[in-house]
Write a structure and sequence with these properties.
This protein has a five-stranded parallel β-sheet with strand order 2-1-3-4-5, sandwiched between helices. It has six helices and five strands; from the N terminus they run H-H-E-H-E-H-E-H-E-E-H. By secondary structure, it is an alpha/beta fold.
Length: 156
Amino acid sequence: MNKKLRLAAVVGAVALVVAACGDEPDEADDTTAGGEETTAAASDFLGCMVTDAGGVDDRSFNESAWQGLQSAEADLGIEVKFVESNAETDYAPNVNQMVSEDCGIIVTVGFLLGDATAEAAAANAEEQFAIVDFSYEQPIENVKPLIFDTAQAAFL
């Protein structure tokens, strides 16, 4: 049950972060019956993810974050991509690779990516980041920490 609750929380948080990064809809803009204009606008948004060394199918944070982005792809029509880190030395290059991909948001997964995310955020103030399972003592304006109170989930 704890895994399902954690998964639901991560999927919901990632979907909310991705949805919050989009532009406000124009009130004068009429969407066609099939939602074609909305889909075209959403497909211009690229949600990116950098895993920690556990990989995208680690049955934990990486996998649930990726499932959240895939849900945003299916539900919101955005494009998504990820890059897997095999070692700590991959973190900074992988984050920088996603910066060069012109992502609408870059989700880094796990506290081990804290330094690489902070460095990339400082060097790229126009980029939006989210980091799973980590927060900074001094908040960084373009980084949204995604923290989950596991004691609450465990209690339930």
